[in-house]
Predict the 3D structure of the following.
Amino acid sequence: MTESLADAVEAELVDLSYRLTEPGERECLRCYLLRMIEQFGCDNTHRWTKRWRDLRSPRARGLIRRLVRQGACCCDCEVILNVYPYYPDSGRLRPGQERASPGRSGRAWAGARPRAGARA
């Protein structure tokens, strides 16, 4: 056997990491980010957004720039907080959410800032 056990384990881990973080065939950016942030956390970059773009829409080179204009200044969490702040209440807390914002029936993330031009 020319390959050491360590090399074989490393190759298997690399393959596993790709499979665990690959977007589903029809998984949208929002759903992908929620899943990745819940499973692996946010590293204060657009790491997961870039991975989704590179694998599902590689020609969308301006995606990050457009998301930044919508309030996703620094990371994947900001995409969820500012680009997709409202969606149906699932009855459970979303990744990074401590409690639902008062008066919003749990539809917004706690502490989320409304986007410019959005109604209060």
Q: What stands out?
A: The chain has a mean pLDDT of 80. Residues 5-21 form the longest helix (17 residues). The helical segments are 5-21, 29-40, 47-56, 63-69, 76-83. Residues 2 and 85 are 52 Å apart (CA to CA).
